[in-house]
Amino acid sequence: MKISKSKEKWGQIPNFKNYLISNQGKIKSTARKVWHSGSKTEMT
Questions:
Q1: Residue 26 Cα distances to 10, 16, 31, angstroms
Q2: CB atoms near residue 24 (< 10 Å)
Q3: pLDDT band for position 27 (cuts 50, 70, 90)
């Protein structure tokens, strides 16, 4: 697989608002609030 040396750009995936896809084919989830079980501490 050939990876371009250009700057990686991210865009939202249609119908999947919590995920982004890059111009190099990488996929990642966006930041979201997560609560630790048994704790009142919010983690991101």
A1: 9, 15, 16
A2: 13
A3: very high
